[in-house]
## 1
Amino acid sequence: MNFYAVYRLSFYLMLFLATLVLSIDSTDANRIAMLYPVVMAVVCGIAHLTVDKYPKLGLSNTAANVLGPCAFLLFYVEYRYDESLLLLGLGHVLFYLQLIKILRPKTTRDEWVLLLTGLVQVIIGGVISQSDVVGMALLSWALCSLWVLALFTLRREAERVRPTPGTTVFPAIDDEAPYPGLINPAFILASLRVAATTFALGGVIFLVMPRRATLGMATKGGAMGTHLTGFDDEIKLGQLGEILENDSVVMTVEMSDEEGKSIVPRPDLLWRGVGMARYDRGRWRKQQIRPSKFPFDFPRRVRESRLIRQQIKLEPTDNPVLFGIRPILWAESPSKPFAPEFNNIDGSIYRSDTRPVSIDYLVISSVNPDQGQPTELFPETEILNDLRGIDPKLKALLRPIAEKVVEGIDPGDNVARGRRLESWLRDSGQFHYTLQLDVIDRDLDPVADFLINRKEGHCEYFASALALLLRSIDIPARLVNGFKGGDWNDLASVLNVRQKHAHAWCEVLKSVTPDKPNAPPFWVTLDPTPGTARDESVAKIGGISTGMRQIIDFVRYVWVFYIVGFNYERQQRFLYEPIRLLIQEAKHGFQMIEQGFRAIRDWMFHFPNLSSFFSPRGFLVSFVSLSILYAVGRLVWSLTRKVRRRWRNPHADRSAMAVGVLFYRRLVGLLEGCGLERPDWETPREFARRAALFLAGNGSGYESVADVPPLVVEAYYRIRFGHEELETESFAMLESRLDALETRLQPTP
Amino acid sequence: MTTEHRTRPGDSRRSTTRLTRWAVSSLWPNQRLRWTREGISYLVVWFGLLATGLYQQINLILLVAGLAAGPVVASIFVSAAMLRRLKITRRVPAYVFAGESLWIDYVLQNDRRWTAALALIVQDDVTPVDRSIAGAGHTSPRVFFPRVPGRDRSQIRWEGVGPSRGRYIFKSLDLGTRAPFGLLERRVTLFEADSLLVYPRIGHLTRRWHLYEREASETRRGRRHERSAQQHEYHGLRDYRPGDSPRWIHWRTSARLGQPMVKEFEQQHEQDIAVLIDPWLPRTKVDPKQREAVEKAIEFAATLCYETCRHAGRRILLGWTGAVPGVRQGPGSVKILHEFLSQLATMRPSAEGGLAPLLDALPPSTLRESLIVVISTRPINLYEEAEKSSRLSETSARGVIGRVTLLDVSRGDLTDLIQFGESGLTRVGQADSPADLVETPLRAARPSSSIGEPPIATRPGRVSPGSRDEMEPRP
């Protein structure tokens, strides 16, 4: 396969993916956003077939100079069209400039520019949206970029390393195919290995990057957040059915107990959202909001109670409603603008800032459902009237039905009466669960129509019917919208709550007067919806097999919690705290070892008096200590000698050999100093003879040292070739003779 | 030499030795990393990315920054892996003529099983031992190995022009790679010492020189005719000159032309020659022209030796002045030529000594009958030198001086006597190239890299068979 063809195609694929990252989640803001990647692909294809093969077909400088300003003009038009799309517009400018560059003959410098503009596009795409689709596109781009960068380096190296003028290299590099046979299974395998290493290292670096504790925990999802129907201030009966057929994830929940151990939630867990008090002709209105802080002494409560910790990652929505398991004891978010607030009128939690961003928040709930919602206010008279409020006509219709069902139950026992009605709606078999809603009598109230005529509907009808039946017999009740259950993921140990899990149920006030002064009201949850039928209906939505859903949910979980949602708290929890714990453990272990050694030392060296030293123990201690000291000394001495030998002469190991060579080298050095050099063709012996003649012929005292060269060379020969070892006296004699030679050769002042 | 260990003599397997070796190599690493230009640009962009991500606390940008850091960190490890289990061998000729073609073979062997070695650069360094020689400088051969598959080897030949005369050493060579991402360059320095002897530049002796030589030979006094002219080859006829032996008269031609003609022999080939060089330079204030004169003198001497040794049988002597005058002699042969050229290659100018001590060191036979060519870089008075000599009597001095051809380079005596062709690369393959006459043996590859290695194919880009030392004589 041709190297350049692979390189070009990879390069264009990378540019396409960069444009995809920019465009894939901006279709809401720009209707033609998905056209950009298509245009990029087409232009890349044209460039590959034309300008890359025949550079003459590329855009001329003039054409490029004309088109450049046009790119900025288009950006200006886009900006004027919608000023909020400044960032996206900048990404598009880069796109236009890329197109111009692609259609021109490209140097390696141009390719660098294209690569960097692609990177900037990706950054813009990441700033605009952090949804999982952008993430997938981004990871694809990153993988492709690695591959391109590697090929780019190979290409650049082949071009960079050219022979300098005046030199040639054989065989010369083939310009057309500088790396023949490069693309083979071994190369692809090696590339994958490098990519895996790079990604792993990049992932580790990403995880250890510092996160701030207070900012940035809320992350943007798409250009617009999802609107959760059924959680507005006013809802029309039946609206909830719209989201019951939707498979999108609303929130992802990690659940743990008070010790932080992961727990598997019950399938019928109710995620309480918003409470509805007023009912008027098929419309429910939300209870008023009175914000209050969470007044709990949270750390103390942790020690006292059994708790459920819910770490919730809420997908971007434009609703202020937050969800949690009742009774809620505490809720917090690392992101201050989106911190949960408590509504003490209905015991729900919400956020003030309704910007469509993804929010991380923690809810701590009590395991005990009979505890009631702490700090929720007992309904005032006006509110109580709302909670008992029902249209007289409707009341007249429903009261006989309710009374008939609750006949024989103590009129003061609201809960018992409520449970009887709940059971009647859910278990009597008269009512059925369905998402298909047909109005039979338009003149009737929808709830009355459900109870009297239709007798089938979804949870909202069941819950509304129960609430109104209770109100018809003067029992305060309210409708609650939230979610029931979710898809538990075994791989990630998280619960994915989807829109299809939306649910409505009813809460009945146990007593209209507080049991104790300042005690919170006790609301009992009643769920009249037939559970099995609902579960079957929920299971039908989505259409993906359980195994596949587990995998998809797991990938999504990783993305949501550990990439996009990897915040300070998670970093501390999953990275730094285990490391700290590990260090502490190691420290503890070392301390134990140290203590052990100390104990042994104390035992060994503790001699209260001199006579105790002269004992078997004293002998043992002395013997062991001296042995260790001796061994250490020998080792140090041996290593020192070796290092010194190597330091002095790395090319000789044997001591005798080293000495012989040193003598010879010294002689050579001395003679070199006076101009006598040994050429290659002269043996040391010949050289020594010549040197002796030279010294003898020089007169004036040189004769006395003329014998030194042959003497040293003979000794050198004996060591070097004869493998003999000289005696110490011989070494001393050679040393002294060389000293004499050196003294003689020194210039006289 | 492998990229993992430096060559150490001795093969001790003792654990302490290994430990020491490991400790020394750890303390003195032979690898280094440096940022490339692209890497620096990449780093700047990465810092921008990181700053944006940290400031905005946008995890997706932090993710991009993290992934972008991956290639930098991976480059550190992957480049090290890329250089692992590679062997690089340098093959250099034992000697080369200055200005002629110099080639060096680099063989890269990849001992890895699968992974190919990619985009590797070998950077060598040829350093002159004696920097005082005019024109001696560094040469940095550089070759690029695009791809060497696993369990394979590749050879690339670098060709350049031989530098100025002298001894050159190859201390170490760098093997570098920018793979896989071009952000960092890792270089491993391999201490593979080697040396190269660059002989002086060889020129062509001109016709004028041959005339000089002939005249000096013919007009010399005290020449001996013990060698029979019949044994010599004659190459032409010329007019009779006074002093010519009647035996040389070619009677038939003389009769035909009506004037005496004598046979002209290749006498200069027969007569022994002594080339005495006096590479004098003042101790201080050396003029570049004087250095140039020394080089010219040496080149002329080398050319003379070269021309003389082309024909076997004629004795030649090379003598040089200096603090310690030196003399080498022998019958003309390739071997003696190598000796002379080696001596001339490493010859250093000297401010000491003179011709007289050198004349004293000459063998008596040379003084008696050889043609003596004195090449000096300063004006020389032969009579004064003869007087200084302790061995020459007045009579013998006259005889010697009569056979001396004195060439003073500083005076420009060599201008018309020698010519130089174009530089080496253009002369490769020409029949009269000195490299063709004195076949250049290959310096042996290191035994460590050739022992047990499989035979190597001799296709282009592959390694040729190992050492040719056994096949060709070395000086």
Note: Chain A has a mean pLDDT of 85.
## 2
Amino acid sequence: MLSEIVDNIVYIFLIIGVFFNLIAGIGLLRFPDVYTRLYAGIKCTTFGSIFICGSVILLGLKMWYQGSSDGTVLVIHTAGALIAILITNPTGAHAIARAAHRSGVKPVGAVVDDLEGKPARKSAPIKKGADK
Amino acid sequence: MLAFVVTTILSFIIYLLLTTGSGTDIVIFNENFLRWSFGEIIIGIILSVIVGIIARKIFVNKNYRMANPIRWFGFIAYIIGPFFIGMAKANIDVAYRVITGKINPGIVKISPDLKTDLGITMLANSITLTPGTLSVDIDEDKNDLYIYWINVKKEALKKKPVDCKYICGDFPKWIRRIAE
């Protein structure tokens, strides 16, 4: 009885996760420039991955409850993967967006751009005469 | 010395969590829960001492503010509560924009008035994962953030830098409580 309920919750979590990853894919195709594509890609893949990892964690807890010794390993390793995704995904998006803006890609149809014309920061000085 | 001890203990705990299930010499609770072999634990101690020597200056800088358990519980409450609700809203917003294709973008500057590196990192990551916004660049002198905003509101542009409440709601308050 309990096993069937947990199985159904796992299916629902998997469906939600796959749906949001699908939305991310469609967004990558439909949006016009790099920022909006990052916007769709980052948010939806992170949210979808949370649900997919959550379904694996629930399955591991069910295995542990039923007396299988692999359950804890599954839960701990999946939780580690989830934490890594949560930290690295927005950081990578930030790096790509910053690199795109510094190499001259402007947002399509921008109403306002406060970053336009801001000098490169002082903490990363460009060496003069290094290219001679 | 204290920095070395803290780093070593934390890396040893993480090593133990990742290598559970390796043998049945040491058992916590019962055999299905957590178990290790002696060899794994000896290797774990050696490796975490090495990691503690190498990484103590990177991992702990100057003060031990984050060693307080109240801040950890605050962090967990923040992840489960406002952060997760913000992410759910963000995804419904993305689905709406993917289907209709309506965008009204711009890059705005906010000054959240956070002082530590950890706090500003947490705020930038939270902003990236919550509705309508993506953090693009940072002004390292004043800790101002430049935010790509997909649906710019007219009334927010009257004041520069833009007020935080339009972009990230209550997040700076939470992060000030956790990290500063």
Note: The first helix of chain A runs from residue 2 to 30.
## 3
Amino acid sequence: MISLVTGSLLFAYAGMLGLCQGLERHYKQVWQRSPSPALRLSLRALGWLGLLLSLLLCAQAWGWAMGAVAWFGVISLAAVVLVMLLPYWPRFAVALVAAIPVWSVLHLFG
Amino acid sequence: MKNTFTQSMAWLHTWAGLIFGWLLFAIFVTGTLAVFDKELSHWMQPEIPASTVSQADVAKRAISYLQQHQANAGNWGISLPTERSPGLSVSTGDRRHGVVVPLDPNSGEPLAVRDSVGGNFFFRFHFTLDLPRNWGIFVVGALALVMLAGLISGIVIHKKIFKEFFTFRPDKGQRSWLDFHNASAVLLLPFHLMITYTGLVIFMMIYIPAGVDAVFEGDSRAYFQAQGNARVEQPRRLAKTPADLVELAPLLAQAEARLGPIGSIGIRNPNTAAALIEVRPVLGNRIALTKGNAMVFDGVSGRLLSDVPELRPAPLTQRVMAGLHFAQFGGYPMRWLYFICGLISCAMIASGLVLFCVKRGRKYAPADSRADAAARRWYRVAEVCNVGFISGLMVACVGLLWASRLLPAELAQREAWEVRAFFGLWLLALLHAGVRPAKQAWVEQLALCAVLCGGLGVLGIFAGGVDHLRLGVEVTGLVLGIGLALAAWRVACPKPAVVKPRAARTMEAKA
């Protein structure tokens, strides 16, 4: 349960990060240059994919009825964390997605 | 009125937000705390021990206590230890005027537990504001409508919802406050809308009773009976015939297999042929709030007489919405989601209130400002109320926890004194805000609140009764205390606005 919830939070964060970095002003905020249109598009697509995976993990943790409720909370909180990190430590906010592989390993083999 | 639609919405948002925001903040803070009401109750009554005894054994001990001391009572109630509240208590008499005796789940002996309003105070304050009768419910309902109006008008006047979806620009004064207010409102909009709307739905029968009055001809009892358990009645003469009570453990096992964890047991007419055993689950194995549902067994044969009722679509809809508000489902992870979302809601309301003053500060605050005296006085009122209703209320809330531990355990009418401590602290905080300059008042009250929150653990060590639930309360207090201390520190020494370097950079670029 805890592992699934953590995973859904991480994927929600990564999803929100993808959507955020798919916007020119926030990409510039981190990397000081403009993203190419293709990169922007793929970041957004990855963002939506992250949110979708987060929903699947929520549903696995709570079932579809409660999972859907929890998902709204999870993506909202993930976005708040992102928005609060971004102006202070922009690179760290991006680097945080590295937690996903760590989580995957722990979840699958732990 | 203002010229355009957006302007009138902005006017509504500003003034309704200011005037009603103070009480809305109190409602949101106490509601957030009420997510952990049982845990707080447990913390506030350190005499209740942790126990690892199984529910069946505990029930057996409770029954043997009742057999010994209350064999002839008409009603028995047993509140079993659960994951969230390890206390055991037995009661006799009806629900309102019953006598409750806390027992030690480890020995089955009566336990001297101090009287305390417990976390239940936050829960009750959340929807009654401690007003008598139904007035509080109506006031809170009206405030919920204002909150909805605030959310909708906020959406209307926020023209860049998607463009500034991820935007927060710190250290820029008014701009930062607006950014934070917007981000916390927009990102949690599903939560804000859900919690406000479902809050109204809980009491819809009180707010708009016409439908029930028409169908049930004003008989609200008939209405409640129509959706609850079918009431099982035993012939009255059986209540005079003595009979042995059936063994509880198999019934509990049967009920647990069907309903999930069990919360309480009620026995009507114990030790007679008319005995009925009602087994109620803890809330939360589904979203719908199923308060009052029970499996009813014959107390002599142990036969199942009545199962939990299936809800029909309309009541089910209402119960699901109430359940969404009460957050009893989904276990601790869900509770934490609600708690943190609630904290951010509180911060959203508080930042809106602060924004009101930040926006007008330059015009009204300085003593030599050209604004007329009346306007400056009103500005000062807003400032004082902001401090008193935001940091003051938080001091009062954590002060209640301190009062529960510090007031002498044998004090007569102890619960009333705890409530007095809560309102007394709140009043003191308002007075303090009135006599101190705004900035000092913020710093002092936030710092006090931080110390009180962080100190819960210290108090816990000295007052005893440490277990994992209480430790959870204390650690959470510590984390919140650190947050509040940071806030106090930032108010005390604000960073100089970092506008200059950027201005210099643009100058360089131009050159």
Note: Chain A has one domain: 2-109.
